[in-house]
């Protein structure tokens, strides 16, 4: 089968009752093979923050190469972090239903909450996701019929959301896509207003994704628009032969694999990691060598246990490169003149070892001349003072 790409379009609408739109969607079908719908909740528009935060965290995580489940768990962390750090946002949360196309042609749907994904194949609408809602659990437990659930007063209560707990259970549904398949991602503002058979009929009438999404939103508004409404339609399209060379989808690495799924491509993942890591390591190595060269490529004459000493390195060291003792000179600092003592205590630096040796030899000569006078004429110590000129004749 030829490789597939996703073509997507979405519409979100405030509806006819609510003041703000806490729904949001993400369309990264072109760049990341990723689409998602989020339905936020929380007072004072915190729901808007929750849905937007989750979608941005999801996008960033997938863009950095994370598998979908990890990316959704990261989105949970991002919403929770914001919620606990800001009193105004406390208690906010969001649903998240996302689809990500892998290079193997599978669309993995990751899901938390009561937004939904539907597959439309050969004109037939199949619900992919199970709602994490109170009424859905009651239907599964046999306490309600699906028809009763549709009109139940507590049908908007959800049992799982992002941003509430540090741990979130993510449902995953791998779908082996066929060319022409369409996936509808939508918030409950659509599905509580428009019955599945009407959704199917709209989708079969309108092929163009953007117009079809708009028609679904219009239908929900026509039915009352009691909640925010979001519909994102994704179509699986065969990539034309001349585009196959550069598919615009990342590798996937989903943890729930259907039986026919080919083995994960560790080799390529490793290669991808190396492509990013190697240049960083090279730059780092160059920097280390440069700093090391700078730190070690000098000498200074200083004091070590009262003895004048030649050191290799920079006084005080540089980024972990400490100076090392290069040569003990045998000269005690107390034998030096005051000015010389000041110089060595201040670590007098030299660009080469021989310059440092010359300086030490001068110090040693001065010490010897002062301590072992060989002539009756005292030799003045080497001094930086200019010679005193003879008084002018009067
Ligand atoms: Mg809603």
Give a quick set of tags describing it.
single chain; about 400 residues; alpha+beta; Phosphatase 2c, domain 1; Alpha-Beta Plaits; 2 domains; 6-stranded antiparallel sheet; 5-stranded antiparallel sheet; 11 helices; binds magnesium ion
Could you walk me through the main structural features you see in this protein, from its secondary elements to its overall organization?
The structure is a single chain. The protein is of the alpha+beta class. The protein folds into two domains: 4-241, PPM-type phosphatase domain (Phosphatase 2c, domain 1, 4-Layer Sandwich), CATH 3.60.40.10; 298-371, Alpha-Beta Plaits. It is built from eleven helices and 15 strands. The chain has helices at residues 29-32, 46-63, 68-85, 134-140, 146-151, 188-191, 196-205, 209-222, 266-296, 338-345, 353-371; strands at 4-13, 23-28, 34-41, 93-94, 96-101, 106-112, 116-121, 124-127, 171-176, 182-186, 229-238, 299-304, 307-312, 324-332, 348-350. Strands 2, 3, 4, 5, 6 and 9 form a six-stranded antiparallel sheet that branches. β7 and β8 (124-127) form a beta hairpin. Bound molecules: magnesium ion. The site of magnesium ion has 6 residues, from α6. Magnesium ion is lined by residues 39, 187-189, 227-228.
């Amino acid at each position: 089968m030829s490789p597939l790409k996703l073509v997507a379009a979405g519409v979100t609408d405030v509806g006819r009752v609510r003041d703000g739109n806490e729904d949001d969607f993400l369309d990264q079908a072109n760049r990341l093979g990723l689409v998602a719908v989020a339905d936020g909740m929380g007072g004072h528009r915190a729901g808007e923050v929750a849905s937007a935060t989750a979608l941005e965290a999801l996008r960033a995580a997938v863009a950095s190469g994370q598998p979908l489940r990890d990316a959704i768990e990261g989105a949970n962390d991002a919403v929770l972090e914001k919620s606990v750090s800001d009193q105004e946002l406390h208690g906010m949360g969001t649903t998240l239903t996302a689809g990500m196309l892998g290079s193997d042609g599978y669309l993995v749907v990751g899901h938390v909450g009561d937004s939904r994904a539907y597959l439309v194949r050969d004109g037939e609408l199949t619900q992919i996701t199970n709602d994490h809602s109170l009424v859905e659990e009651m239907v599964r437990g046999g306490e309600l019929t699906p028809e009763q659930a549709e009109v139940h007063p507590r049908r908007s209560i959800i049992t799982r959301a992002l941003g509430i707990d540090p741990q979130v259970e993510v449902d995953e549904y791998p779908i082996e896509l066929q060319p022409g398949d369409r996936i509808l991602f939508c918030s409950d503002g659509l599905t509580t207003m428009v019955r599945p058979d009407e959704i199917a009929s709209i989708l079969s009438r309108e092929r163009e994704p953007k117009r079809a999404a708009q028609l679904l939103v219009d239908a929900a508004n026509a039915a009352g628009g009691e909640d925010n409404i979001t519909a994102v339609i994704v179509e699986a399209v065969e990539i034309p032969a001349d585009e196959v060379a550069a598919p615009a989808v990342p590798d996937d690495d989903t943890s729930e694999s259907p039986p026919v799924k080919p083995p994960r491509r560790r080799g390529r993942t490793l290669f991808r990691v190396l492509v990013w890591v190697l240049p960083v390591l090279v730059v780092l190595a160059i920097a280390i060598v440069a700093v090391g060269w700078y730190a070690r490529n000098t000498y200074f004459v200083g004091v070590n246990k009262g003895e004048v000493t030649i050191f290799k390195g920079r006084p005080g060291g540089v980024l972990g490169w400490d100076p090392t003792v290069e040569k003990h000179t045998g000269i005690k600092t107390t034998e030096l003149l005051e000015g010389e003592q000041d110089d060595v205590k201040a670590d007098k630096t030299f660009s080469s070892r021989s310059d440092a040796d010359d300086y030490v030899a001068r110090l040693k000569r001065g010490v010897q001349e002062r301590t072992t006078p060989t002539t009756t004429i005292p030799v003045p110590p080497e001094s930086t003072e200019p010679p005193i000129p003879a008084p002018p004749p009067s």
